[in-house]
Amino acid sequence: MLLDGAKAMRISLLIALAAFGWIAVYIEFNEELRRRIGDGAHASAFLSLFVGLTALITAFYFRRLAKIRADLAQGKPLARWRVARGDWDAFAATEARETEEGHRATLFIILGFAVMIPAVLALVLGDAQIFAVISLGIMAVGGIGYLLGRNAAKAHLRYRDGVVSVGEDGVLVNGVVHGWRLPGSALVGVELDESATLAVLAITYAFWTRGGRQYVTVHAPVPPEAVGEARVAAIRLEAGAEGRAPELTPSKQTTGFLAMLALGALLVQAIPAAAQTDDWQRFKIDEASVATPPGWRAELTEAGRTVQAIEPRGGREVRVWWWFPDEPLLGYTDELAHDKVTVAGQPALRVHTRFEGRDTISVTLDKPRKDGKRLHILFEGQRSLDINDHALMGMVSRLTIAGWATSNTSPETPDAVDVSGGDAEAAAEPEPEPEAPVQRAELGNIAAVVNGPRTNTIIAIKRPIFVRTLETYHWNNARGRKPGIIVLLRPDGTEVGRWVARGKPGQGGVPNAYWEADVNQRLDEGSYVLTTSSNETWATNAGVGWRGFYSMHYQVLRQEPTPEPLSGDAPPEDPQTSRAAPEQADVPIAPLRTTIPRGR
Predict the structure, then answer these.
(1) Are 540 and 418 within one domain?
(2) In this structure, are residues 481 and 474 in contact, taking their beta carbons and an 8 Å threshold?
(3) Domain, as residue range, for 13
(4) pLDDT at position 68, please?
(5) 132: left (phi over 0), alpha (psi -120 to 50) or beta
(6) Are residues 13 and 114 in the same domain?
(7) What is the pLDDT of residues 292-311, one digit of tens each?
(8) How many distinct structural domains can be found in the chain?
């Protein structure tokens, strides 16, 4: 190594100091960093810890190497001699020729693999352009490595002082130090070749890397007057060496065998993928039977609960599983489009999003199972996807669910999907006609509010009604909140419906203080839990029992005397205003739930 170990140690210590300094800043100003750069603060702290520890270890390594260099240059080594420039130049010419031959052979092997392997893959899998780019990339990396290695070899062989110093821990040859008393290193063998005109001392040592044990052989020329000294040093070192030098240059037969072995392993992986038929593979996850596209690598994962399929080329992949709706599907800033489709005869929501160049299309059934889970298809790609992607639509049209209605697509056009909004038969059923006038149920008051209900907001319905709209209040300290989703659940957690809300300004022009969603759905007798995609900004206070502020427009489904209004206060107003409350029914707010009373 030509590098000055002491200087390298100081640089490593400075890097470690900077890394640990950033960790100190992270600890001292944690909240401020998290506010400014988010979760990147945690990532930077872990990265700094890794860099700091690595730099410390590297510094100790260079410190040891610097000590070996100092002992060889200024201490009392086993042997020391100087090689004249003429002798060194003759030695360097031979050494450079042998080194160049080794580098060139390695380059040819890399170039051979760079041509052969992508060519075979292109023939088996097609898409020659992609594999041509891969081939050129491998060639470029191999060429750069060859040039760097050749330049390093030339630098090592350039004459400086011609001093050779052999010690117990390492050897210094013409200013280049090699050490074997370092962590993970060991002396393997020593040989003095006196047959040539200029004797050569060969010292082999090994060190561990991530790729395994690596061997290095150092050659040092020995002038005639120093042969005796070199012989004594070789005997001394050989006594402490491992005594087994590796085969440094593989034979042509070994190289050819390794090449054929690598090519065979590659073909074993490539040929089955190409030999796949055009049949769609089917997998079963509970009630669902899922078909994956032809040629895709598909398997059951997560103990048979998820179907995963990956396109061999093209960057698309898909996963299908029964998903519990623990987060909204709509209302995100990266959404491109959404619509309704039919899956296994059931209405489903299809959503297309794009984030940092990666497209995602999800298809989720509206109807849950008894455990509240809904079938969820997640289709992703590292490029722009068409919402009607052929592979995705083929999966949707072929999906079946045992015990549920089958797909209503035509057998002549299996990839056709109804995007009109759901099952045709269901759409043809007459909707019950509300006969009573539209009424308003509400829960709220004009007192100051805080964020986040502490109690479930439950609506108890004692007779069938037709809900027109639902509205929730998100004051959020006069900041409002971008509209998301309003959801109704049954007490057991199964979903009744979810609707995309639109924003309405509140008192003083607060944007999106109100979320309003068109429901237009019948609700039968029973209890329902109201929730939103942003409960953390949903307004509440002690006056409503720490439930969420909301209002609902509805109609009864039979012509009967007008029911009494719901228990509740006036619609929520700006909590910062001090104006008097509007007139309202003198009915106390129920402590736990809002109730629609029976008709009289």
Answers:
(1) no
(2) yes
(3) 1-75
(4) 85
(5) alpha
(6) no
(7) 988 888 999 888 899 999 98
(8) 4
